[in-house]
Amino acid sequence: MAEQILPIYNTEGKETGTMKLDAAVFDGEVNTAAIYQAVNAWRANQRKGLAATKTRGEVSGGGKKPWKQKGTGRARAGSTRSPLWRHGGVIFGPHPRDFSWRIPERIKRLALRSSLNAKLKDSGIVVLDEVKLGSRKTKEAARIFANLKMEGQMRRHKALLFLAHKIDRDLRLSLRNLGFLTANLAKDTNVYEVLAHRKVVITKDGLQELTERLR
């Protein structure tokens, strides 16, 4: 694949330089099988598995036999908490369980590289020089993305993914009320997060850190 070079923008939306992408990571390969496994694993690991029902042995009460075994003309009954009765237990109901499963780290890295290559092919990666805010204001943080000419994405919920090498407290507080944005550390991003957003805005240091992680 030909050498990939991305422009670097500042917070005013002006191009300040370029960045050569590591060919070992941005090789143009999109392995859909690895992405499929990684996305399914991530979604499975988000499930809490806390749904629970009570069996006849767990429902309160029902210790006394409702009527004698024989002679009443009615069906046999040993407990008022039988699953056949109202207020009884549940047959084969859900119980707390662990839905999570793991995939090899090699496949996980391949999937993340593939998702980044897919975004790169769609011109979905924008590199920022660095992000410094003069004050802790959401309006000032939103102006950065407006300067990058992303007004169309700013009208959609969770359309932009912002990745940085470091996010201090002031920056996090300024970004958290932007409905169109998800902010995360570059080293902690995952396949689902990259693919779920239309554009990825990543700082130069964050991209270098992410490249080191995937190389």
Which descriptors would you attach to this protein?
alpha/beta; 6-stranded mixed β-sheet; single chain; 215 residues; Ribosomal Protein L4, Chain: A
What does this protein look like?
The chain starts with a strand and ends with a helix. It has a six-stranded mixed sheet. The chain is built from seven helices and six strands. α1 crosses α2 (105-121) and α3 crosses α5 (169-175). The model has no long low-confidence stretch (mean pLDDT 93). It folds into two domains: 5-47 and 103-214, Ribosomal protein L4/L1 (Ribosomal Protein L4, Chain: A, 3-Layer(aba) Sandwich), CATH 3.40.1370.10; 48-98, no CATH class. It has 215 residues and is of the alpha/beta class. Helices cover 33% and strands 14% of the residues. The radius of gyration is 27 Å and the shape is elongated.
Q: How big a fraction of the residues is strand?
A: 5-15%
Shape: elongated
User: Major sheet, described briefly?
Assistant: 6 strands, mixed
CATH structural fold name of the largest domain: Ribosomal Protein L4, Chain: A
Short description:
The protein is α/β, with parallel strands linked by helices. The chain has helices at residues 32-46, 105-121, 138-147, 151-154, 169-175, 191-196, 204-214, and strands spanning 5-9, 15-20, 125-128, 160-164, 181-185, 199-203. The radius of gyration is 27 Å and the shape is elongated.
